[in-house]
Amino acid sequence: MVGDLAGYTLAGWGFTPAQVQADVLLAYGEDDGLVPPAHGEWYRAQLPAAELQLWPAVGRLENSRDGRRPPRPGGPAAS
Question: Least buried of 37, 42, 44, 52, by fewest C-beta within 10 Å?
């Protein structure tokens, strides 16, 4: 995992997030301790066409405190 993180954070991407013109959906669980919503808020501020969705009571890998799964973009919530 450390190698993955270093691979995409230490090497240049060849562009800045501000140059991305595509619509971007950023989906973060509010209870994700590994990649917290603050990361999504940073990306939202950098990407010109980004939407940030924060899912309450959702942690890492679609785990939630109440057993529900987060909604899928464009579809109903999975149970």
Answer: 42
Question: What is the average pLDDT across 50-77?
Answer: 68
- 29: burial class by Cβ within 10 Å (0-12, 13-18, 19+)? buried
pLDDT at 67 > cutoff 70 = no
Q: In the prediction, which pLDDT does 31 show? A: 87
Cβ of 48: how many Cβ atoms within 10 Å? Answer: 13
Amino acid at 78: A
What SS3 class is residue 59? Answer: coil
The two beta strands, 50-55 and 24-29, are parallel
C-alpha to C-alpha distance for 68 and 34, rounded to whole angstroms = 20
How many Å apart are CA 43 and CA 67, to the nearest integer?
28
